[in-house]
Specification:
The complex is a heterodimer of chains A (465) and B (456). Chain A is an alpha/beta fold. Chain A is 26% helix and 35% strand. Classes of the chains: A alpha/beta (465), B alpha/beta (456).
């Protein structure tokens, strides 16, 4: 039902004729990987990295837990398509008209004027458009595509790329490491605080297409950056695979916040590995909104490796008809005086399945680790499902670890209260759901909060009564 | 499997030898009939057993407890003498042993109807066993005890009305039993049915099972004490079947020595409006892996799963609980509290599963862990699987150390740190101990104190 609403009313439900210039053939093999590397003019060490990853990909099993991934056929996807000649652009006007139209409708120019420091827009795997504000450049902030980083900043890349998430980590990290294309590379120098959020948009536009962006964010000592990733995609009937990898390093005293609103169309598999390392006195915050896709498996993680580090995961999941959101967060306390907070809010309706899967681990010998996990779930109708699988592995006594989870339906009392003040049942339910999500929505920048509220309204329309 | 045949041979002679002592012919006949049926059943269980494999760490429930190290297939079985001297002791006359063919001397025969029920139950367990250890148990159990708790009789004398009568068989077939009536006080639902097992042996496996059938509107209390010694596998399986409106209170205390590898696996089925309170006190053993799974199959049923564990030295304690809501408006609470010291490690895996039909479910799961030494380790994995919306389900888990402020409070009033810690730990467990039958309370408190003193 929500899919119909999206097709007819939702402004993001549209697509353009495919203008890709270069596409690899369907399927995954060594030749495809070499072609991708050739297309990007990569140095040998990166080609080797890709090939090694591919080898590991073949040896890794599919996960026997989590969302239902049985329909994925790796041979059916196209793993790379480059949309335009001439590489990256510098301003909106240089973009090909169709692509520019797509982004105009997405509202980027207006947004850019007000809030954004720079926008990297991804169209079918390539960073087509890139614009970095002058003052950021002057501060020494690097915000570019990972391809450009490989060419221009090989030392930084070699130092950190694949160190947080090695290609042996899991099957999908291996896949991404072999065929990655696009994403962002961000480096914030010591002491620099980027006050305006950095964003990048993604789109999948080719049938049976995979998205494998690779993001690496390095926040040097005492720096601050807020990176926003928001994805939308048009409706397609064949499956698409989105398997991204995001690595974040927060050096001593740094703070990184990474916000995502994922709203892929309901035929997409979204299998993402996101992990951050927080060094001494550093903070990493993941704000993760999962509204779309057919299947999402994503567990943003923070490894608290330095003393005094802090990690947070704020997660919203909305599972509608035919969707499975299997999300959560993982925090590993590997140093003294570390703290963590995981807040997860999920909603399931129309037979959707939403699961929280998380881990809090305190290593042996760690002193003064504090952790709090709260998972709340709303099930809106009898056919929907909500699951919670929290894992607490505590190997030290000097801890204070709390976890709680609650599952329920919309409170009859709350509905009655609002209805007796003149709201219809539908309006009341919508307000309650928005209120349920409010603590997390408040953490997002305004335009995301607005988009999120609008999306919730759309999902809720017609679901009550 | 030569060892098994040897044991079967041993089992065959032991009851035969005992039955011969009994004067009454009916008992001998019935014993032999039961014996045959039991052997048939064991054969079928063995057939199933051979088709299964031992649990491995690849299975989620066994991930943190690797039982492959025990090499179950290499273990021998108790010889006839060991068996005769160390089978489980029935401290209540109501227990009937399928192996021995009678309860106590002078006790009534088990009715044919009841026997059918028991075997049907056993067959069901055999066909749906959660793991190989349960099948292993059914095939080799030294004793399969049956405790039948019948409903309060309407025609009984004063005092029985309003109290559940435990023990007297009310089936029509019970008329046969009238010949062997014993003088057990009628209508005594306060009687505690105690079973105490001093299992013994080195490099062997010992198995015993208990089936409790609680009739409609009956009330009963069961107290199991597992007191093994020496390095053997102590495999106990329990099955609790509660009829509509039945109320059953079960306490299981694991008080074996630290060489024992103990498995307590319990499954319960609750019918409409029944109430089950099941308490697990893990105060012994070296490697413990327990599983308590309850199906709330009747609406309005009420379940309390309580657990207390005090792990020290290098104990490994792994507990699994499952609250399975299959019917509407049932109410369940799991509450497990543990203290972990020295280099012990504990794992708690609790699951609340609510089916699509279980509307109006009210379920809660709590696990608290108090770590009192630097090397202690504790894993807590409370899970929820909810398939309908009209529910109230929550779970909570905490892990931490003793509050320094509370210790300071005691110290200011003249107590030593050790004494303060001891009092705090006893206090921590008190809310669980308080709800137990008095006899059990005493035992539990004594054991906790011993452990507290032992480690100083």
């Amino acid at each position: 039902m929500s899919t119909e609403v999206q097709k007819e009313d939702y402004k993001y439900g549209f697509s353009y004729p495919d203008k890709s210039v270069f596409k690899t053939k369907k399927g995954l093999n060594e030749e495809v990987v070499r072609e991708i590397s050739r297309e990007k003019n990569e140095p040998a060490w990166m080609t080797d990295f890709r090939l090694q990853s591919l080898k590991v990909f073949w040896t890794k099993p599919m996960p026997d837990w989590g969302a239902d991934l049985s329909d994925i056929n790796f041979n059916e996807f196209i793993y790379y398509a480059r949309p335009t000649e001439g590489g990256e652009q510098r301003s909106w006007d240089d973009l090909p008209p169709e692509i520019r139209q797509t982004y105009d409708r997405l509202g980027i120019p207006q947004a850019e004027q007000k809030f954004l420091a720079g926008v990297g827009a991804q169209y079918d795997s390539e960073m087509v458009y890139h614009n970095i504000r002058e003052d950021l450049e002057q501060q020494g902030v690097i915000f570019t595509s990972p391809e450009e980083a490989v060419q221009k900043y090989p030392d930084l890349v070699k130092k950190y790329f694949g160190t947080i998430i090695p290609y042996t980590d899991n099957k999908f990290a291996a896949l991404n490491s072999a065929v990655w294309s696009g994403g962002s590379f961000v480096y914030v120098p010591k002491g620099i605080k980027v006050n305006i959020p950095i964003q990048a948009y993604f789109r999948i536009n080719s049938e049976s297409f995979g998205q494998f962006e690779r993001t690496l964010i390095i926040a040097d000592e005492d720096s601050f950056v807020h990176y926003i990733e928001g994805c939308t995609a048009p409706i397609y009937s064949t499956e698409s695979l989105h398997s991204a990898v995001v690595e974040i390093i927060a050096l001593e005293g740094a703070r990184v916040r990474y916000s995502t609103i994922q709203n892929w169309s309901n035929d997409i598999y979204n299998l993402v590995t996101k992990r951050a390392v927080a060094n001494r006195n550093a903070t990493v915050e993941w704000v993760d909104g999962n509204l779309g896709s057919k299947r999402t498996m994503k567990y943003p993680a923070v490894h608290l490796r330095g003393e005094g580090a802090h990690g947070e995961v704020l997660s919203i999941a909305f599972a509608g008809n035919g969707q499975e959101q299997d999300t959560g967060g993982k925090i590993i306390h590997a140093a003294d005086n570390t703290s963590s907070l995981i807040t997860s809010k999920s909603i399931s309706k129309d037979g959707g399945i939403s699961s929280y899967r998380g881990l809090i681990r305190v290593q042996e010998g760690v002193k003064n680790a504090r952790s709090n996990v709260v998972c709340d779930a709303l099930i809106l109708d009898p056919d929907s499902v909500s699951n919670t699988y929290p894992y607490m592995e505590i190997d030290s006594a000097d801890v204070s670890m709390e976890h709680e989870a609650r599952v329920s339906k919309i409170s009859e009392e709350q509905l009655y209260y609002l209805m007796s003040r003149g709201f219809s049942e539908g309006e009341a339910a919508m307000m309650i759901v928005n209120g349920f999500l409010d603590p997390l929505v408040k953490q997002l920048p305004m335009e995301y909060a607005v988009e999120l509220n609008r999306l919730i309204e759309l999902e809720m329309e017609g679901s009550v009564g | 499997m030569k060892a098994v045949n040897g044991a079967r041979g041993a089992l065959k002679t032991a009851p035969g030898a005992e039955a011969a002592r009994v004067a009454q012919t009916e008992q001998t006949e019935q014993t032999e009939q039961i014996h045959e049926r039991l052997q048939e059943f064991r054969k079928s269980a063995r057939a199933r057993l051979d088709k299964t494999a031992w649990p491995t760490v690849r299975e989620e429930e066994w991930r943190r407890s690797d039982v492959a190290v025990f090499d179950f297939d290499s273990l021998a079985y108790p010889d006839a003498e060991l068996l005769a001297h160390t089978r489980a002791e029935r401290k209540s006359k109501q227990f009937f042993s399928l192996n021995l063919g009678q309860s106590e001397e002078g006790a009534p025969l088990i009715s044919a109807g009841l026997l059918d029920r028991v075997f049907r139950h056993l067959e069901h367990v055999r066909d749906t066993a959660a793991n190989r250890l349960i099948l292993w148990n059914l095939a080799l159990a030294e004793d399969i005890f049956v405790l039948h708790i019948s409903a309060p009789s309407r025609s009984s004398s004063a005092g029985a009305a309003g109290k559940g009568a435990a023990g007297k068989d009310r089936d029509s077939a019970g008329k046969e039993a009238a010949r062997a009536e014993r003088d057990v006080p009628e209508g005594d639902s306060t009687e505690i049915h105690e079973l105490c097992w001093h299992s013994l042996g080195e490099d062997i496996s010992r198995h015993a099972a208990l089936i409790v059938l609680a009739d409609e509107m009956s009330e009963g209390t069961v107290y199991l004490r597992l007191k093994g010694m020496e390095g053997h596998v102590q495999n106990f399986a329990a099955f609790y079947d509660l009829g509509p409106g039945a109320a059953l209170n079960v306490s299981v205390i694991q008080e074996s020595s630290e060489e024992v590898v103990g498995f307590y696996q319990a499954a319960a089925r609750m019918e409409r409006d029944s109430r089950l309170s099941h308490f697990e006190g893990i105060l012994g053993g070296g490697f413990i892996k327990n599983r308590v799974e309850v199906e709330l199959a009747g609406s309005g049923s009420e379940l309390r799963l309580n657990g207390l564990y005090f792990a020290d030295n290098d104990q490994h304690v792994d507990m699994r609980t499952v609250q399975r809501h299959a019917a509407d408006h049932a109410d369940s609470r799991t509450f497990y509290k543990g203290v972990i010291g020295d280099e012990a490690e504990t794992i708690f895996q609790g699951l609340i599963e609510v089916s699509h039909e279980a509307t109006g479910t009210d379920a809660y799961l709590t696990n608290n862990n108090l770590l009192v030494s630097d090397e202690a380790k504790s894993d807590s994995i409370p899970s929820l699987n909810i398939n309908t919306n009209d529910v109230k389900c929550s779970h909570g888990s905490t892990s931490g150390k003793i509050n320094e402020e509370q210790i300071y409070y005691f110290q200011c009033r003249g107590f030593s740190r050790d004494d303060a810690e001891q009092m705090l730990i006893l206090g921590y467990f008190e809310e669980l101990i308080d709800e137990l039958p008095e006899k059990v309370q005493t035992n539990v408190r004594t054991r906790i104190q011993r452990r507290l003193q032992g480690s100083r």
